[in-house]
Design brief:
mainly alpha, Growth Hormone, Chain: A, MFS_dom, transmembrane helix, Proton-linked_MCT, MFS
Length: about 400
Amino acid sequence: MSAASRSAAIPLLAIVIAGCLIAAVTNGIRTSFGLFTLPMAGDLGISREGWGMAMAIQNLAWGIAQPFAGAVADRYGTARVVAGGILLYAAGVALMALSPDAGMLTLTAGIVVGVAISVSSFSIVMAAFGRSVPAEKRSLYFGIATAASSFGQFLFAPLGQGFITAYGWQQALFLFAFILLALLPLSYALRGTAARSVADVDLGFLGALRSAWRFSSYRLLVIGFFVCGFHIAFINVHMPAYLVQCGLSPETGSWTIAVIGLFNIVGSLSAGYLGGRLPKQMMLATIYFTRAVAIALFVFLPVSELTAYVFAAVIGLLWLSTVPLTAGLVSLFFGPRYMGLLYGIAFFSHQLGSFMGVWLGGFVFDQTGSYNLVWYLGILLGLGSAALHLPIRERKDEGFGAALPRPA
């Protein structure tokens, strides 16, 4: 029985609703961790670099695990992977609340939560969407999944700050864990594996990766995605503390993160829609160039509530709008069969950038008392990534798998 037949009993609308709710909650909780920087660092007596290292390890663990999570979901089905990831995510967040020092925080908030996010977040949801919709509509549905993730960021930023203010950071984390557990029944709607025809040859994990890596457009896409991770992880984790340093309130920091999430709903949906009509690589180059300009203006203008919210709105439009376009190109290059794995490899690069952005932010702050050097680096990386995307060609890789030996 084909994957399409196995999943036919579940309407596409149910798949989309369940996937979007899972993406919203898992991403919303993750993006609220920056709100815990000051209260947790103060109560636990850890440095800004120590906190940043835990969050950086989280992003790195997420990135390392993502290709394997995608490959397992491709082969054995999304529902099992997502359900296991939700359980692990809830456990990691609860243990994060009980972590007494930086070392344990690195284990719980870093490794456990990072791996859990890789098997429960929007990357896996997009793989489920990719096998359920026609090729010409994939960018749009990838945009819907990304927009749902952004709505979670918009919702959980003020909710998380409200939990912290009302109950303290430990109880806020326990509440997040309970919310995650409520997602478990929704994972059933995502069951199914990637469809394959009788002519398909199972390339295996390394075979598919070796074949894909020969395609120069894929290599450029993967390398450029590093910059997206650097930007959003640095801003997401360090922006609230940066604004407090500039004399603004913690509430301004939380609402800034919320505004980013709100505007990224528009940005992600627009990118998903336009990705089916305009050259995706040119849209990506434009996004990275515009990010560089927006960061430069924000850094060199005086910081106020107005500039913080305007920057949040602009960067929100560009925030995860790269995701449906990048996922759309991966799907176009190689088809849906290895979507989870090969997008996972691209996302690993993204998370390497996230690791560097989060860790470097904490390190530079502890060394200089300022985040300015990291902001400047973000400008240069945005310009570099824009240039990298220009040579990408939007076409199918006709040689995918052809250069590999076939089993006898």
